[in-house]
Amino acid sequence: MINLKSYQNVSDTWDEMYISDNNLRGQYQDIINYLKNESINDLNKKEELAKRLFMSQGITFTVYDSGEGIEKIFPFDIIPRVITSSEWSFIEKGIKQRLKALNLFLKDVYSNQFIIKDKVIPSALIYSCPHFLREMHQLNVPHDIYIHIAGIDLIRDNDGTFYVLEDNLRTPSGVSYMLENREITKRLFPDLIPQCKVRSVTEYPSILYKNLLALSPRAVSNPTIVLLSPGMYNSAYYEHTTLARLMGVELVEGRDLLVRDQKVFMKTTTGLQQVDVIYRRVDDDYIDPLVFNPNSVLGVAGLMSAYRKGNVAIINAVGNGVADDKAVYSYVPDMIRYYLNEEPLLKNVPTYSLGNTDEKEYVFQNMHKMVIKKTNESGGYGMLMGHAASQQEMEAYKKEILKDPRNFIAQPTISLSTAPCYMDGVLQPRRVDLRPYALYGPEGISIVPGGLTRVALKEGSLVVNSSQGGGSKDTWVLSS
What we know:
By secondary structure, the protein is α+β, with helices and mostly antiparallel strands. It is built from 13 helices and 25 strands.
């Protein structure tokens, strides 16, 4: 039987399972009752089965270290993270509100730019963003939807308040892990899931497929949809193959497509087949060598011409990076007020832009309390965790910042909530975040009830990214 007395709440931190020592939150009661009836040997067997299932199914990710790609099995914790129905309802409303405003911002910033003219956002901030693409100016996207797929990173502070840490609006990854985590948990706890009335996440591929069909610029009964991948050496290739298989669409690389007469075609054994919708997992810079990086072999020459002509839909829209730039992030609450005339439901983490001289000086004086990030990095790369950095590391980082202050933001260190993890035969608290996935189609925004809970597996660590040693766990949203 598992020893619950070994579970020690981290001070000044919101714990997802315990209100205080021995004071259990109601949503975890069924799980704890189940664990009390399981032997350590049984739980170890479940943990081993999960590892075998991940390995046999090739559920991997790639860590890039010193220029070498190292493929690893994605670490998985068998204890689910539980979210109540009322918590989820609030999260869902907050994300929908946020995405509506961000989508309106993208339409505006690539057309009339009212938000700049009204001095809500500084023009210099937008024009200095490397992901603001002039090639998207006055380009009409189908149904005025830019953000078809979003992965919004949420964290909880020590009072339980949800904050948005990042908006991932370009080619957000990780949804395949959300789906596989649920499938594996079904194998580990087949009776517990219905007993706890856990809502399903398995509809994600069918909702996405339905949206992709509806975005076809051609009025045909069976539009051709493809998933464009950079290929098998990409860190998220497992996800590309999984989603293509689950939706029943062709997985293609740039060399499988060509453009003729401003239309996109796929090469097949029976000849060329016109493509209507491209769910692309290739970054903007590599998508069309005639417009962006001329050395790219991952994209399709002439694709932007077909896109501008309205002959193909690209999911997500090109140029979305201006909306999830970490320096623009601090203006999202202002976007919500400006476009929707509403107060933001989900809070931003307080953010300092180091392009601002006063804010930069404040951050330099308080680096030991800050997390400092590059505005256009992801995966936890290029970060400075002030509380864990030496004076020498902070001084070296200051020199990097001074080369291009616009390229950095700082945020106060937020404790991140903890959730129970099964570690070496005992339950231990580990830091977690949550990435729910939102799908924006012509009929509105859908969010499957769950998401990817990422876990900082190292004791005391605040970094949950898989590339930095993090793992994941299944996310249960209760129906009542």
